[in-house]
Design brief:
The chain has nine helices and nine strands. It is an alpha/beta fold. The chain has one domain: Thiamin diphosphate (ThDP)-binding fold, Pyr/PP domains (Rossmann fold). The longest helix is centred in the C-terminal third of the chain and has 16 residues.
Length: 260
């Protein structure tokens, strides 16, 4: 050893790019927290050479080059069928469809429900921040009653626009045996990471469709400070969007089937 050079290279998470670059999301955005958990799970399960990561149009598209993984960016709402096609042609791959609530619950809702009903063996991850973030914060299928957005300046009125879509419950209702469905939050990283790991393990076992909705943050469009942002995602959102697992395969770690 000379000139102080360490004989052992530092151990780095292999799913991150070698330069360990920062993400491109706004300060306080929840996408970075979701992707951090996902990257850790990919590393722990040693899936780097098997994963194909697909991302939707919207804020989620900024994740297209975040990982040192094979990745594809799809048209808005089409991430689920693209990943379904890849999985059917290459069943040995681990296909992850990453999207926002607009792409998954609006323009892409038919694809999401159909994939769940067919029990496609992919993993879909949806970040729910209750509005269309990239285009300026308009009302989305998940906007809460009374919540102000660019298109609901006086608050969402369910009499005019209906109630927020409870997508996790919808997906769970059409899933078949072998599916895994859960809702986590960026406010609880340990629980979220556990759900994401189970979702990928379910795909590894070839049981069925795996879906994790994640309650996420958007202080830029919510126009909230740090304390208000955390209160909204940790206290207000779970009042309507209940956290937990609603479907779990019977043979997943011997825990039995959980249908909520």
């Amino acid at each position: 050893m000379s000139k102080g050079i360490c004989p052992v290279e530092p151990v780095m998470p292999t799913s991150w790019r070698k330069d360990n670059k920062p993400h491109k999301f706004c300060p306080g955005c929840g996408h970075g927290l979701v992707l951090k958990c996902l990257g850790q799970v990919v590393d722990e399960l040693d899936l780097q050479d098997k994963v194909v990561f697909g991302c939707d149009i919207g804020c989620s598209l900024l994740a297209w080059d975040f990982f040192n993984l094979d990745a594809v960016q799809t048209h808005h709402g089409r991430t689920t069928p693209v990943m379904t096609g890849i999985k059917r042609s290459r069943p040995e791959l681990i296909c992850i469809a990453y999207m926002g609530d607009g792409g998954g619950y609006s323009i892409g809702v038919q694809h999401l429900v159909s994939a769940a009903a067919r029990n496609e063996k992919i993993t879909a991850i949806l970040a729910n921040n209750t509005q269309y973030a990239m285009t300026g914060g308009q009302m989305a299928p998940t906007t809460l009653p009374g919540q102000k957005t660019e298109t609901t300046p006086y608050g969402r009125d369910p009499e005019l626009t209906g109630f927020p879509l409870q997508g996790q419950e919808m997906v769970s209702a059409v899933c078949r045996e072998g599916a895994y469905v859960a809702r986590g939050s960026v406010a609880n990283q340990r629980q979220l990471k556990s759900y994401l790991k189970k979702a990928l393990e379910n795909q590894l076992a070839q049981r069925g469709f795996s879906f994790v909705e994640v309650l996420s943050t958007c202080p830029t469009n919510w126009r909230t400070n740090a304390a208000e942002t955390w209160e909204f995602v940790q206290e207000k959102m779970p009042e309507y969007f209940k956290l937990g697992e609603t479907r779990r395969p019977a043979d997943m770690r011997g825990e039995g089937l959980a249908n909520g």
